[in-house]
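To close the chapter, one final illustration. This time we ask the reader to focus less on the individual chains and more on the assembly as a whole: which components sit near each other, and how the overall shape emerges from the parts.
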Amino acid sequence: NAGVTQTPKFRVLKTGQSMTLLCAQDMNHEYMYWYRQDPGMGLRLIHYSVGEGTTAKGEVPDGYNVSRLKKQNFLLGLESAAPSQTSVYFCASTRGWSSNQPQHFGDGTRLSIL
Amino acid sequence: KNEVEQSPQNLTAQEGEFITINCSYSVGISALHWLQQHPGGGIVSLFMLSSGKKKHGRLIATINIQEKHSSLHITASHPRDSAVYICAVPGGSQGNLIFGKGTKLSVKP
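The assembled structure is written out below.
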């Protein structure tokens, strides 16, 4: 039972570099989310997807892009990394939009931008 | 937008103590989530509740919908309970959650 798998777990980038974070879920969930977690703050929503081929902006989308070409995968891209994007990134998925659906989280990706 | 406040921010307890973590929110909801995050680890869902009380082992979660308040209790605390406990509420029709800042619990042997 893999659940939600995030890769990589750690990464160090230089300012201006690009990279893609991968989230994969094996629960056939429709809804997927990318959050970032910063010290002293609650998790904040970056982008989300309500199904294959659809994406939408969350609370803090600037500097990020996403794609959901396959239902099980949700990719988060940083085109030109900035130090302000140093954070821990979490992917989550859920079956539907109902508030009574549990959310399943990955183990997180710790990203440092130098 | 719903505002989620947790207290305390940090909590240190001795093994065996009874622990209470509080969560309040500003806008009425249909369900509330309690999550656990271990140091360096991922986030796991502990409870999802819409009314009354739920119990799982030594963990008990309660919610008062009218007062917009929930509590997480840990009975007979143990060092392995040391973690960050996060309260979260639904963010809207997109199914995301709005999170509190978390309560960092440290249980000393």
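Chain B has no helices and eleven strands. The longest strand of chain B covers residues 83-90. With these observations in hand, you are ready for the problems at the end of the chapter.
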